[in-house]
Amino acid sequence: MTPFGQRLRQLRAAKGVTLKEMAAEIGVSSAYLSALEHGKRGVPAWLLVQRIISYFNVIWDDAEELERLAQISNPRMTVETAGLCPEATEYANRLSQQIDQLEPDDIREMLRFLDEKVRKPRRQT
């Protein structure tokens, strides 16, 4: 599941609607919406994110957060390390090969560390 998929599921549960009901309202198939929630589809198109924001009547900061979550929810990433130090390439490769061996708490700790190092705090969802 992606951060966007997790939030989408939370919004759907709070509104008490099924995948099928929501999919019909926003103009996609329930299979696509399910795949989006489960992280089996890439980043949704901007227009679809806007339909979802409208469907749930999400406003201001919450709408921006949903857009941000969509942008960081690509389940298949490519990391370009050309021109960086050799350790960056090693780190990217090892992370891609071993991420499934990490516990969620370990990943959260790594995200906090990254946020601290780049001085860009991540919003909590």
Structure notes:
This protein has helices at 3-15, 19-26, 30-37, 46-55, 60-71, 86-98, 104-118. With 125 residues, the chain is mostly helical. The protein folds into 2 domains: 3-71, Orthogonal Bundle (434 Repressor (Amino-terminal Domain)); 77-125, no CATH class. Helix 1 packs across helix 5, helix 2 (19-26) packs across helix 3 (30-37) and helix 4 runs antiparallel to helix 5 (60-71). The model has no long low-confidence stretch (mean pLDDT 92).
Entry keywords:
7 helices, 125 residues, 2 domains, elongated, single chain, mainly alpha, 434 Repressor (Amino-terminal Domain)
Helicity level: 55-70%
- What is the domain tally? 2
Q: Which band does the percent of strand residues land in? A: under 5%
- Rg over C-alpha atoms, rounded to the nearest angstrom: 17 Å
Element pattern in H and E: HHHHHHH
Largest sheet: none
Quick take:
With 125 residues, the chain is mostly helical.
Topology of this protein?
Blueprint: H1 3-15, H2 19-26, H3 30-37, H4 46-55, H5 60-71, H6 86-98, H7 104-118
Helix pairs in contact: 1-5, 2-3, 4-5
